[in-house]
Write a structure and sequence with these properties.
This protein has a single domain, classed as Ubiquitin-like (UB roll) (Roll). The protein is globular, with a radius of gyration of 16 Å. The protein is of the alpha+beta class and 146 residues long. It contains 4 helices and 6 strands. 16% of the residues are buried. The strands form 2 sheets. It has a 4-stranded mixed sheet, with helices on both faces. A two-stranded antiparallel ribbon has the order 5-6.
Length: 146
């Protein structure tokens, strides 16, 4: 199962690379984009007692691989913050679900954003580049209970 999760991340990363911003999911669920180069320490100052993990290093039943404080965030990657008490623990399917749900809700917010007070639909290509929808992956079909 851990190998499967890492394969899914590889399938998503080309979409993420189209936007040159590094994205961080904060403990509140907020997703911030960083266009300029930023170090992990600068992000962790905003949320003490949390560490930062690159989403590509998340594998179920493996330990978290936190970024060091002096490591720069790579553009086009997604990062997630976890509480320090989880530092030496294993990654669970619930952790992966947190990542997927945050990414999906961000895509939906971007899709329905308003410009100048008028709701305008984004071009289909832009939506496809920003969407990280689980339903697009046939392997996840059995997990989506209705």
């Amino acid at each position: 199962m851990g190998n499967y999760a890492s394969a899914c991340n590889l399938m998503i990363s080309p979409r993420m690379k189209s936007n040159k911003a590094a994205r961080v999911i904060f403990p509140t669920g907020e997703i911030r984009q960083f266009q300029e180069s930023v170090k992990a320490a600068e992000i962790m100052l905003d949320c003490p007692n949390f560490f930062l993990v690159n989403s590509q290093s998340l594998n179920i039943n493996r330990r978290f691989s936190p970024l060091s404080a002096d490591e720069e965030l790579e553009s086009g990657n997604f990062y997630i913050m976890f509480p320090m008490r989880r530092l030496n623990s294993m990654i669970t399917p619930a952790d992966m679900a947190l990542f997927w749900m945050s990414a999906n809700s961000a895509a939906k917010r971007i899709e329905s954003k308003k410009i100048n007070g008028d709701a305008k639909a984004m071009e289909e290509d832009e939506v496809e580049q920003l969407r990280m929808a689980v339903e697009e992956l046939p392997e996840f079909g059995y997990r989506m209970a209705e």
